Structure prediction request, 414 residues.
Amino acid sequence: MNLSNTDWINDQTIYEVNLRQYTNDGTISAFRKHLPRLKDMGIGILWFMPLHPIGEKNRKGELGSYYSVKDYFSINSEFGTAEEFKTLVDDIHKLGMYVIIDWVANHTACDNEMVALNPEWYIKNDNGKFQPPTGTDWDDVYDLDYSRADLRDYMARAMEYWVTQFDIDGFRCDVAGMVPTDFWEATIEKLNLVKPVFMLAEWEDPELCEKAFKSDYNWSLYHILKDIASEKREVSSIREYFEKSKKSYPSRALKMNFLDNHDENSWNRVMIKHFGDKVYPLSTMLFTLPGIPMIYSGQEARLEYKLKFFEKDTIQWKNFPDGDFYKKLIRLRKNHSVFWSNNTTLEFLDGLPKDVLGFKRWDDDNTYTVILNLSNQLQELDFGLLSGNYVLKDENSSSDLLASNGYLVFKTLN
Prediction:
């Protein structure tokens, strides 16, 4: 399958939109006022969490879970209308940006019309009752049975509807590994006949990226970074992760690199509290490593609390205190093609202090060096490596001294 027509992703940054919590109104109309700001930041791909009506039967909390889909062919009226979303997509495209939406293929709301019309499409327990996915506490949804060819056809048609009617550019697919890979492969082949789509799997398995998905989550790296911040692992474990033998991905596959997302923020940890000032060197690393970077709603505002998942809980933007930082990272990546997603060169540096990480990226024309201090202490850099032109640095670092949680990116002089 030829996915070359999605090469537009190579210099892009993904931004996850939590529409419910984004504004006081939590609507499409209110969100669109942020478009000029996001465009100015340099965001390239807007990923919208599920936009569909949410089930009422067994609903969790007051507003329910985005991921309990009542109707695959409609927009949640709390967010707005189909026409409003169609116009939003058009406006995003006019700004030179792209749109992907969240897709929940593994399960539906308990009151999705499919339950009554096609009960045979669902997995039943030993008592013949509908059930949530095995091993989960998702009791607001029923598990789907992909041994049914007619279910596969229905789900493929539903996905195609959003591409043909709204001109979206792809999907982020929820728990993609819980759905048979051959369904994704067949469906994505059909979608690509309409237009080339960018497919992101919420999972981590090279099999999904063989013929179906362009990218999956870099969960493995995220957990390493999480453990480094809590002093459960050494900084050297980052290098070990990249250099050790691991599952082999197709050459075209991308890892999505992130420090936050809706699951981590709502259920596990507040990014800015867990990582502290390490957010800055780590984010610099994620924007300069192979892969594609992602920013979550509120990250540019230094979001300091867990957003409620089933209730209204508006993000407090506070004049976007980290907006300029992420703008610099996005611009760095866009302006220097060595950091684009279609380049996988990477070599780690020897001879650095214990908590300092360094690596090189290069192409046929240029070489760049990235140096990161992942400690809370000033670090002396006593070697002749740092000769070049800076393209990014924190204000307190230099070629001799690296500030606590500091970062340097420079183009090597030939």
